[in-house]
Amino acid sequence: MHDLSHQHNHQHCIDDALLRARELCQQRNLKFTRIRELVLATVWANHQPVGAYTILEELAKESIRRPAPPTVYRALDFLLDNGLVHRIASLNAFVGCSDPGDAHQGHFLICRQCQIATELDAKLINPAIAAAAAQQAFTVETASVEVVGYCAQCHHKPQGESVHE
Amino acid sequence: MHDLSHQHNHQHCIDDALLRARELCQQRNLKFTRIRELVLATVWANHQPVGAYTILEELAKESIRRPAPPTVYRALDFLLDNGLVHRIASLNAFVGCSDPGDAHQGHFLICRQCQIATELDAKLINPAIAAAAAQQAFTVETASVEVVGYCAQCHHKPQGESVHE
DNA sequence: GCACTAATGCAATATTATAACATTATATTT
DNA sequence: AAATATAATGTTATAATATTGCATTAGTGC
């Protein structure tokens, strides 16, 4: 598990994520192109989920002509397909996967205040989902869990400091 | 629990949902207006989640001037606030709540083939979520679970032929 | 080089959702 | 009933998110 406390050497997260992505693509004979790398780096810029159009802004800074939305969405599709990022449907946003390679669904704790999305251990949740689904003879393909609340660092702090409200 | 088998008297679901909504609004001194009723009826037209703009089409059929999007979204907000419908973020769609009154989050099984969304028992899932969140000292406010797969009626059938259309 | 495929560029558009302000309906008080 | 207040709806415009379709470019194998 990674250090998700609010004061951590985040550059390490970014470097680590990019390195693992590079390795994973090499292993699978996939192309980790500049665009894909830039998009992944942007997603990993912090632990807050980031929207496609925010990523687009970042891409624009790095290129002469402003890229169009499909550029971002295609890169995101690639990263999603290869388990390098997760999409958080309730936020229409994307976040780096903390455990790529092992294909899995993202289950997230999302802090209302600092917006940090922490991937939670699927092993604790999936059995409960499997059991509940089995009750209805439902065959699970994918499952996503999105929990909203307050993280340990934020839940004692006053509300007003949030970007949200 | 309600009869969600594929051959059921669905008119009963609709009538029941509308009746309970009417009662709930009366109890809480809320106005169950024509628009809200129409929107709820559309959401309950079947067990498949329905998009806001599809609801808008239905509203258009019932009124002289075509309503604008805010009309639908405001009615949906009302219904969401009062636990009469749930929003399924991964589909940008809305589905009737099978247990209104008891304020709760929707946890859903969504069939890839027939698209029916079945609300699953939160009591089986929430403890697991609570436990996983507690591990990270995270305070849960709301949690949503969206499971995609094949329902009992569909999961042995060949792709492409749904029982209910 | 040539053919093939994957990736990207690019223009247009689709889909989902909200903001801001005007008007109408309902309820409450007088 | 008139006056006021509040909630609901109408209306216009626009924001935010995402996709389609087709052209072009880059890399790969022959």
Strand order of the largest sheet of chain A: 4-3-5
Alpha-beta content class of chain A: alpha+beta
The total number of structural domains of chain A is 1
What's the level 1 CATH class of chain A? Mainly Alpha
Oligomer: homodimer
CATH superfamily of chain A: Winged helix-like DNA-binding domain superfamily/Winged helix DNA-binding domain
Cα-atom radius of gyration of chain A:
17 Å
Total E-strand runs of chain A: 5
Q: Please provide the ordered H/E string of secondary-structure elements of chain A.
A: HHHHEEEEHE
Greatest contact between two chains: A-B, 36 and 36 residues
Q: Which bin fits the share of residues in helices of chain A?
A: 40-55%
| CATH-defined topology of chain A | Arc Repressor Mutant, subunit A
Please give the largest β-sheet of chain A. 3 strands, mixed
The poorly predicted ranges of chain A are: 160-165
Alpha-carbon distance between the two ends of chain A:
30 Å
**Rough shape of chain A?**
globular
Per DSSP, the total helix count of chain A is 5
Kindly state the mean pLDDT of chain A as a whole number? 90
Tell me the strand percentage band of chain A: 15-25%
Q: Please state the second-level CATH architecture of chain A.
A: Orthogonal Bundle
InterPro entries (chains A, B): FUR, Fur_C, WH-like_DNA-bd_sf, WH_DNA-bd_sf
Protein name (chains A, B): Fur family transcriptional regulator
Organism (chains A, B): Zhongshania guokunii
Family (chains A, B): Belongs to the Fur family.
